[in-house]
Amino acid sequence: MNASKVPHRGWFSPAAAVLSGLLLALAFPPFEWAILLPLAPVPWIAALWRETSRFRALVSGFLFGLAFWCASIPWIAYVVTHYGGQKGVMGLVCLFLLAAILAEWPALVGWAAVACAPPRSAWRLAAVPVLWMATEHARSFVYGGFPWNLTATALYRHPVWLQSASLWGAYGVGGAALVVSCLVAASAVGRRLAPLAAAALWVLALGALGAARLSGPSKLSPEISVALLQPNLHEEDRAADAARNYGVVLGQARQAALR
Questions:
Q1: 112: left (phi over 0), alpha (psi -120 to 50) or beta
Q2: CA–CA distance, 41 with 58 (Å, rounded to integer)
Q3: Range of 5-9, 141-145, 175-179 with top mean pLDDT
Q4: What would the mean pLDDT of 143-151 be, rounded to a whole number?
């Protein structure tokens, strides 16, 4: 039986969304499995491509965001309990509430993708990267902005894949990654090699652009050396021994100046 003709079950989109959200969290610190960046969204996008219900798409996007944010910013619970003096349950509540607020953006992606084009259409797949870019941009400014874990952030150790930011910024880098996700999803659902080949060509083009920019002569002249200091001081120690902390920072600054 053709995979594209398999009946779409009501639970499939939400389940695929949770799986994708958890996998995408693994692409970010502390795990940093960057290879998952274009692959993690594939189950959710594949489900969205076949989805017939806008409401179910909205819910699946919310669950995607909830799973991703709960898994990628668990430190929120620690901050609330350790520094805020709250009980453990309040740490979990605060984490859930923040994740729920941030989950509205992938929920919007899911709803809009299903609303703008019919199931299994190329236009629906094409809309996903554009919507992803738009919502990441909006998330960086709405409610005062929370630009944490933008898609491009997962590639910070792989500068060759970040060079296209010179064309469309960090948000475009995220959209470029989602292009790969959409093409892989189309290949998996339709059991066709053409979208997979297109994804490979897209990755090669981005890699070639990155390699070319990194191998070319630097346009910055003269060069300026910059040091970033990370004292790693505990919050409790900042008020207890300010003089010692000041000495730690000065010592790191002197060491950096000698390099």
A1: alpha
A2: 15
A3: 175-179
A4: 94
CA distance 61 to 54: 11
Q: The tokens 């000495």 sit on which residue?
A: 247
Average model confidence (pLDDT) across the chain: 91
d(CA 178, CA 206): 13
Q: What is the pTM (predicted TM-score) of this model?
A: 0.86
| Confidence category of residue 227, pLDDT binned at 50, 70, 90 | confident
Nearest CA-CA partner of 41 in 109, 138, 104 = 109
- Tokens for 219? 């346009």
Q: In whole angstroms, give the CA distance from residue 255 to residue 170.
A: 33
Q: Measured between alpha carbons, how far is 221 from 70 in angstroms, rounded to an integer?
A: 43
Residue where the block lists tokens 């669950």: 63
Q: How many CA atoms lie within 13 A of 146 on its CB side?
A: 12
User: Averaged over 76-94, what is the pLDDT?
Assistant: 91
Residue environment code for 198-234, b if the CB has 16+ CB neighbours within 10 A, otherwise e: bbeeebeebeebbeeeeeeeeeeeeeeeeeeeeeeee
Identify the CA nearest to 178 among candidates 48, 65, 40: 40
Give the pLDDT band (50/70/90) at residue 9: low
Helix count and strand count (H, E) for the chain: 12, 0
Note the residue count of the chain. Answer: 259
